[in-house]
UniProtKB/TrEMBL annotation:
SUPFAM superfamilies given in the database record: P-loop containing nucleoside triphosphate hydrolases
Signal peptide: none
Protein name: ABC transporter ATP-binding protein
Molecular functions per Gene Ontology: ATP binding
Pfam families, per the entry: ABC_tran
SMART domains: AAA (SM00382)
Presence of the UniProt keyword Nucleotidyltransferase in the record: no
Length: 260
């Protein structure tokens, strides 16, 4: 995908005494075919930034640029193209899947939205291909979400996210609801998809192992401010900002004392 850039973005929810400054002057760049990790404590503005990168959350100040073009100036066609080329994988696959639609219907839905003129057979073929890419058996086509395992549901969310052949995908805590054994395999699938489809990812996560598995670079977010940006290997080894140090050592402490 063309490079995706945020320039000095600000976003406040609410007004007056209830105002929450969720994002305060954040700049970031996601290079084509690469993964940018977005880390920070709960409430630091990660999901808000994810939605902003998709043009799904209006901003107060700053710019979203795709391929050097200002999102705010997109005409109807360019906007439709941008929507086709971007998507999101959510933490809770249940939220991404309609409980009343079969797996096949859920995976096909984005094609109905973005490619309404495709013939039904062609749609089915593309949806089955996306399922195969996500390592999900197309034989599950007629199953409902409650008839799938957590891992299968997450793969369905991934198949849905890639069925339109996007170039940029936001992964918002993509493995947080999965147990460790499934997590590793889902990460492998996401990396494989990145290679095969040339995807760029914005990876939102609390899990440093997930960052290590996917991200080349990271942005560390603290109360809506990007306090540190850089190559993940460097940040992990030699964090510059006090908050990054706290964040990394908190994770290590939890590991040591808690879940092993
Ligand atoms: N639609 C909204 N209306 C009002 N406030 C919101 C809205 N969405 C988010 N916020 C607030 O903005 C701040 C950032 O929220 P955000 O969801 O981006 O955090 P996050 O880093 O994704 O947190 P988590 O790790 O818990 O998912 C929080 O204070 C949150 O309460
Ligand atoms: Mg979030």
């Amino acid at each position: 995908m063309s490079r995706l850039v945020l320039e000095e973005v600000h976003k406040t929810y609410g007004r007056g005494r209830n105002a929450v400054e969720a994002v305060r002057g954040v700049s970031l760049t996601v290079e084509p075919g690469t993964t940018l990790g977005l880390i920070g404590e709960s409430g630091s503005g990660k999901s808000t930034l994810g939605r902003i990168c998709l043009g799904a959350e209006p901003i107060d100040r700053g710019r979203l640029l795709a391929g050097g073009e200002d999102f705010a100036r997109f005409g109807r066609e360019r906007l439709a193209e941008f929507r086709r080329k971007t998507s999101i994988v959510l933490q809770e696959p249940e939220l991404a899947l309609n409980p009343r639609r079969t797996l096949g219907q859920s995976v096909t839905e984005p094609l109905e939205v973005h490619f309404p003129r495709l013939a039904p057979a062609e749609r089915r073929e593309r949806a089955e291909h996306a399922m195969e890419l996500a390592h999900l058996d197309p034989g599950l086509w007629d199953r409902y979400p409650r008839e799938l395992s957590g891992g299968q549901q997450q793969r369905a969310g991934i198949a849905r996210a890639v069925v339109t052949e996007p170039e940029f995908v936001v992964l918002d805590e993509p493995t947080a609801s999965l147990d460790l054994s499934v997590r590793g395999r889902i990460l492998d699938t996401m990396r494989e998809l990145q290679d095969r489809l040339g995807l760029s990812y914005l990876l939102i996560t609390h899990d440093m192992a997930t960052v290590s598995a996917l991200a080349e670079r990271v942005v560390v977010l603290y109360k809506g401010v990007a306090v540190e940006t850089g190559e993940w290997r460097r940040v992990r080894r030699d964090p510059e900002h006090e908050y990054t140090r706290t964040l990394l050592s908190a994770v290590l402490t939890v590991r040591r004392h808690g879940r092993g």
